[in-house]
Specification:
The chain has helices spanning 16-25, 38-42, 60-63, 70-73, 76-83, 102-108, 137-144, 169-179, 182-186, 192-199, 221-227, 240-247, 254-265, 354-357, 365-382, 394-404, 411-426, 438-443, and strands at residues 7-12, 46-51, 88-91, 111-114, 120-121, 134-136, 161-165, 205-209, 233-238, 271-276, 279-286, 290-297, 300-305, 308-311, 315-316, 334-335, 338-341, 344-351. It is an alpha/beta fold and 444 residues long. The strands form four sheets. A seven-stranded mixed β-sheet has the order 3-2-1-4-18-17-16, with helices on one face. A six-stranded parallel β-sheet has the order 6-14-7-8-10-9. Strands 11-12-13 form a three-stranded antiparallel β-sheet, with no helix packed on it. The two termini are 46 Å apart. The relative contact order is 0.17. Bound molecules: NADP nicotinamide-adenine-dinucleotide phosphate (NAP). Residues 124, 165-171, 173, 210-212, 218, 220, 223, 280, 312-315, 359-362 line the site of NADP nicotinamide-adenine-dinucleotide phosphate.
């Protein structure tokens, strides 16, 4: 028999998958959807604590989405609406696995949804990868987005050419940011330290390396089209089979047609983007700093001179102590949203987002993924499979957390940070000026 007190759920991670899970649980009309009115069927009050390791919410929307994609960032208004639902609490600046353990959460709450994303980087594993001037997209994107983990980084942009390995959407984001004018970037929420560095940048050419041909490129069509909007920038395609495919009347498909159109339309410009296909990196070259990259194109070796090399080859999940982890896929093993250990579901533990499916998909993909986890959780609740003994009341959880982490932040704290950032930005006709260090954020 279920008792009448609210079902208490913790969601770890306040990025898209975590917030959609909260939206599903709290029946937010703001952008979520329910299959057969699932929460209505359960007919039970639900309270949700969304816990994040950063003092600020929204995960990749704040720290990953390219600053010039202002429309995408508006999705945060959906999450703000979810956060205003009765029963919602944001608790920031708490690192699960360090400040509070997985087993503590399991006893404090009826159920926990892990939506921690993929915050690790994949490595190229080639010689020279560790040289100064060579970095992962994870670091570079975190730096220009003012993510506190990466704000202290410095990048030398005093070079003619940057090479990006991988041609997914992250590579396209980075190429745009490297080549956009400071006037354009000024209108975005790019971190001020990055804006200053880009102001002094001498990069005139960005080479994007794809190890396969254009038909198999990882970028999406809109991101490719966006390259065509870059001012005064020539678009060039290189790589044997790519050129053959481009010039053949028999090779079609949206990406090829767009590439043909871009190359024809944007032949000249002060800056260049080179989309080089069928090319893999073999070694990063240089003494103490990157001077180039050795590549193989269809069996032929070649060198490309550059002073900055960014590996945009995807992200990777990291293990959370106390939970199973699939080291090969870099994900938490699961079945239909339930965490699985040695083939059996872990009672009261669910998973959603990139840490469940790997770093793939657009923001909207997380809606369905979060819904699966919520469906599994509510089904288990209905069937009385959740251990409800020992669950703490909301105030008791906060008291414990505050004891363990004196600097835990709330949704009101975030609103204050948001207000301060917007006010700072308005002095310079910018949407916001991000506070980029933990000290600054916590001071506010
Ligand atoms: P991605 O889409 O998986 O692209 C990774 C790229 O790196 C691919 O071109 C891949 O080549 C290449 N690669 C992987 N390992 C390599 C290696 N060892 N050597 C050379 N190349 C290698 O990853 P992402 O760009 O980081 O994006 C992650 C997810 O976020 C994607 O689902 C993406 O669509 C999404 N995202 C979306 C947006 C947007 O909607 N605007 C923006 C950013 C990111 P292969 O294809 O040959 O494996």
């Amino acid at each position: 028999m279920l008792d009448a007190r609210p079902l208490r759920v913790a969601i770890v991670g306040s990025g898209p998958s975590g917030m959609y899970a909260a939206g599903h649980l709290l029946e937010s009309p703001a952008g979520t959807f329910f299959e057969h009115g699932l929460t209505k069927r359960v007919r039970h009050p639900i309270s949700v604590d969304v816990i994040d390791r950063l003092p600020t919410p929204w995960g990749l929307i704040r720290g990953g989405v390219a600053p010039d994609h202002l429309d995408k960032k508006k999705i945060a208004s959906i999450y703000e609406a979810i956060a205003r639902r009765p029963g919602f609490r944001f608790i920031g600046n708490i690192q699960v696995g360090a400040d509070v353990s997985v087993s503590e959460l399991a006893t404090w709450y009826d159920a926990v949804i892990y939506a921690i994303g993929c915050d690790g980087e994949r490595r190229l594993s080639i010689p020279g990868e560790g040289l100064a001037g060579s970095c992962s997209a994870h670091r570079f994107v975190g730096w220009y987005n003012g993510q506190p983990d990466f704000s202290h980084q410095t990048f030398d942009l005093q070079t003619d050419r940057a090479v990006i390995v991988g041609n997914g959407n992250v590579a396209m984001d980075i190429a745009r940011i490297l080549l956009k004018s400071v006037d354009e970037l000024q209108k975005t929420d790019i971190a001020s330290h990055a804006l200053k560095a880009l102001e002094k940048s001498t990069i005139r050419e960005v080479v994007i390396l794809g190890r396969r041909g254009p038909k198999d490129a990882a970028f999406n069509f809109p991101e490719l089209e966006e390259l065509g909007e870059l001012h005064d920038t020539a678009i060039v395609v290189e790589g044997g089979s790519a050129l053959t495919q481009l010039s053949s009347n028999h090779c079609n498909g949206t990406n090829l047609e767009t590439l043909r159109a871009l190359c024809a339309r944007q032949r000249t410009g002060r800056r260049r983007i080179v989309l080089r296909f069928d090319t893999s990196p073999l070694a990063v070259l240089g003494g103490s700093h990157v001077t180039g990259v050795r590549v193989a194109s269809e069996g032929v070796e070649d060198e490309i001179k550059c002073g900055l090399l960014i590996a945009a080859i995807g992200y990777r999940g990291t293990a959370l102590p106390g939970l199973p982890f699939d080291d090969i896929r870099g994900t938490i093993p699961s079945h239909e949203g339930r965490v699985i250990d040695s083939g059996k579901p872990v009672t009261g533990a669910y998973v959603a987002g990139w840490i469940r499916r790997g770093p793939r998909g657009i923001i909207g993909s997380n809606k369905k993924c979060a819904r699966d986890a919520v469906m599994a959780l509510l089904t288990d609740f209905e069937l009385d499979r959740l251990p409800r003994l020992g669950t703490l009341a909301g105030d008791d959880v906060l008291a414990r957390l505050r004891q363990q982490v004196p600097g835990a932040t709330s949704f009101d704290h975030w609103k204050r940070i948001d207000q301060v950032e917007r006010a700072l930005g308005s002095n310079f006709a910018r949407p916001r000026i991000k506070l980029t260090s933990l000290d600054e954020l916590l001071k506010v």
